[in-house]
């Protein structure tokens, strides 16, 4: 009989991932996959929200080593997520959390938008980097998660392929709620900096929505800008098949 507690197995060496995943299955808690996992901050947030993170994936070996040190019971994969990836190699979880690369979206880099044709050719470093967002659709097409949450900078909405990307999620049976949140305004212990981020929440349980264009106005970065949102649900129904 499960106690519902996580089993920490740091002394199990190479068996830690397998043992930890089995413990998560027995816990009865909802499960998550962390794509573009970094060192483990998003995984920690998911765990505090009540999820067992079964799989974490990143292209950078150093990030995976750091994540494994922080979360030894999670399965880890080092994959190039800007290339074609076979997501059938990982197990399905209840939700998918994804943080595609924001480097070539952020205004701080001074990058210019490519025409659609050039973006599709992926002929330069920026277009290859931005294409990591298509890993969201690829993984979702395979596993049909109950919900997908995408985190990025607000400028992600200015990407020339954003509407195409959004339509891909809709065609898989998802509807979006777009949130622009400032971390300085969120939670019982807000962070001591203004960190404004895009969150796209894509559930599969929607009958209809007033999602409109699927965009949110990021406003400005002044203190007190708070959160803005688009795509509020108007009805909820049974999960899609």
Question: How would you briefly describe this protein structure?
Answer:
By secondary structure, the chain is of the alpha/beta class.
Topology (elements, then pairings):
Blueprint: H1 16-27, E1 31-35, H2 41-48, E2 52-58, H3 61-70, E3 75-78, E4 95-98, H4 116-121, H5 125-130, H6 134-143, E5 147-152, H7 162-171, E6 177-182, E7 196-203, E8 228-230
Parallel strand pairs: 1-2, 1-4, 2-3, 4-5
Antiparallel strand pairs: 5-7, 6-7, 6-8
List keywords for this structure.
Rossmann fold, 26% helix, disordered N terminus, disordered C terminus, eight-stranded mixed β-sheet, alpha/beta, 7 helices, 241 residues
Approximately how much helix is present in the residues? 25-40%
Total helix count?
7
CATH class category: Alpha Beta
Tell me what portion of residues adopts beta-strand conformation: 15-25%
Secondary-structure element series: HEHEHEEHHHEHEEE
Radius of gyration: 18 Å
* Annotated CATH homologous superfamily: Vaccinia Virus protein VP39
CATH architecture: 3-Layer(aba) Sandwich
The chain-level mean pLDDT equals 78
User: Strands of the largest sheet, in order across it?
Assistant: 3-2-1-4-5-7-6-8
Assign the structural class, choosing from mainly alpha, mainly beta, alpha/beta, alpha+beta, or little secondary structure: alpha/beta
What are the segments in which pLDDT stays under 50 over at least 5 consecutive residues? 1-22, 207-213, 218-241
- Amino-to-carboxy terminus distance: 31 Å
What is the number of strand segments? Answer: 8
The biggest sheet amounts to: 8 strands, mixed
Number of domains: 1
Shape: globular
Any idea of the CATH topology?
Rossmann fold
